[in-house]
């Protein structure tokens, strides 16, 4: 039987990416797609790429029959899922939140970074962090999955092989990451206008970004202890893609880094460890659920240097959410996610 899926926030960038992936998924029936602003309008009228694939209308989130779904994805701003998820869970609906409401276990820390009081702490306590490469078995059984953020996915996948194996001096880890402008969402904002973001490049959040506690939580779990992390995001003048350059001081510079990464990810369908000396490009993953990783030990340095690329809207959001849904509903993990990247 097909999985009846609902999407809250179908008019945003992660929402339309979910629609693109789920419309082509053989095991999914797109039952409910919500928008407050476009209720009654056909999805394909708003998104012409979906004409002939998703022609049904958007509906209001409150009259949406979301309770009739098997799974509901929240592709909404932070703070929305925590309002609506408890009632859905009570009705037996499984929930995948693409936002950050359930990602951080320490809710005081969450409140400090997100500027809100958590609406449902008891529900938050049962959420499973949806990074399959770390929590596959727990995701299969989860009622509520906290889909990781876009930067946290790339940074964690780039560093966990080193941290799990205890190879790094964890006091001084640096994540220098760059994102395309779709990472900021579809709401118009001055800094993502073409004339502001085009022909321009800058860091932001250098003094502290809300992904810092999320990344640190995942890295500390992998390392089994504290990790001193500096994380600096940058806005790239392109639409999709994240490139993370990760610096980790090695305890033993003689370790075979290539073998460590190849062994750790040998069975991972969506992590590609590139041959030695490679420099992954964001366009090699554009539109695909793959993360590509290269590991270097630069000349005369005791650092491991990891380069990781992903599509922020796919493995960084909607693709990972579909991967999690596949696990939760005992479907093949890669179902609907194997299309190669779009190039050029
Ligand atoms: N963009 C990215 O690369 C990534 C984003 N994320 C996270 O995913 C979530 C969605 O991001 P993104 O798609 O970029 O955001 P957008 O701003 O592009 O879209 C947000 C969507 O949510 C809907 N919405 C807004 N407020 C509410 C509400 N109160 N109730 C119901 N629906 C609402 C909007 O539709 P309408 O107003 O019509 O109802 C719209 O469809 C965010 O939490 C974001 O942080 C995670 C990883 C990557
Ligand atoms: C380029 C850009 O602006 N990116 C966003 C990250 C988007 C995201 O994934 O954030 P959450 O899911 O954690 O809200 C930012 O830095 O705020």
List keywords for this structure.
single chain, alpha/beta, Rossmann fold, Dihydrodipicolinate Reductase, domain 2, 13 strands, 19% strand, globular, binds NADPH dihydro-nicotinamide-adenine-dinucleotide phosphate, binds N-acetyl-L-glutamyl 5-phosphate, EC 1.2.1.38
Find the CATH superfamily of the largest domain. Answer: Dihydrodipicolinate Reductase, domain 2
Strand line-up in the sheet with most strands: 8-9-7-10-13-12-11
C-alpha Rg, in Å? Answer: 20 Å
Q: Enumerate how many helices there are, as a single number.
A: 11
Calculate the mean pLDDT score and round it: 97
Order of helices and strands: EHEHEHEHHEHEHEHEHEEHEEEH
Q: Give the names of the bound compounds.
A: NADPH dihydro-nicotinamide-adenine-dinucleotide phosphate, N-acetyl-L-glutamyl 5-phosphate
CATH architectural group of the largest domain: 2-Layer Sandwich
Number of strands: 13
Q: Level of helix content?
A: 25-40%
Question: What is the overall shape?
Answer: globular
Q: Can you tell me the CATH class of the largest domain? A: Alpha Beta
Overall number of structural domains: 2
What structural class do helix, strand and pairing data support? Answer: alpha/beta
Cα-to-Cα separation, first versus last residue: 37 Å
User: What do we call the CATH topology of the largest domain?
Assistant: Dihydrodipicolinate Reductase, domain 2
Instruction: Outline the biggest β-sheet.
Output: 7 strands, mixed
